[in-house]
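Lab channel / #folding
Pinned by the channel admin:
"Please post every new chain as: sequence first, then the structure tokens as a reply. Keep commentary short and put observations after the output so the thread stays searchable."

First post following the new format, from NK:
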Amino acid sequence: MAFFISWVGCWIPIAAILAFVLHWQPTKSLQPEQKLPLIVSLYLLAPLVLWGVVLLCQRSWSEYGLIANLSLLSGLGWGFGLGLLSLTLLLAVQFWLGWYDFVWSNLKLLPSISLPILLVALLVGGVEELIFRGFLLSELERDYPVWVAATISSLIFAVLHLVWEQQETLPQLPGLWLMGMMLVMARIADNGNLGIAWGLHAALVWTIASIDTAQLITYTGKVSEWVTGKYKKPLAGVAGIICVLGTILMLWGLSQFI
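Reply from TO:
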């Protein structure tokens, strides 16, 4: 609680300045060009606040799964590849079933948007893993068994997504909770390190955001949006949930290999 209060408390003055510069009013919904600076500033601040926790509570970064060595980069690569594979399989099956059409003409947009979105995805994935699968999970494990800690941290992870979007996030809450559990499994598969979880999270954010920004797919309406994803959000549909469950199985297999 102290961490989250300190994090938000330090960010509020920055957010107020950005809101003034971006001409955003709390009574109005955030536009993408307004939301991005707010998110980036919030996430850049998190490691600094967590550094204060490490110093005050005499913790170490390794306790939270952050170890600056080649294994972190290796795990990042494994996780990113796994994330791309799982989403590619999901999209391929849905395309084969005729649930959406691919807008080939919009492929030309990818070169200009891919790198900026990738950088944001790496930042978002890295910070969220450090906080939820690193700090929060590790602290909860001091008092609870790992799966109880995983359940609580994943629930907090899911609910906090309501801060940015309420209407579109509500149908995603079960999927976000399951995604949190999947990312806990990724840390377990990586022997306590955050590399695989970071890479997996970043790949999911990068792929979905790139598809949405470039408007690469249009749904045909052959099945209910509760199958493909309410509001075009994969985690708000049955197909996305199955994809997450399949990824958990792949992570279990990867843990046996590593």
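NK: The first strand starts at residue 100 and ends at 102.
TO: also worth noting, The first helix runs from residue 2 to 21.
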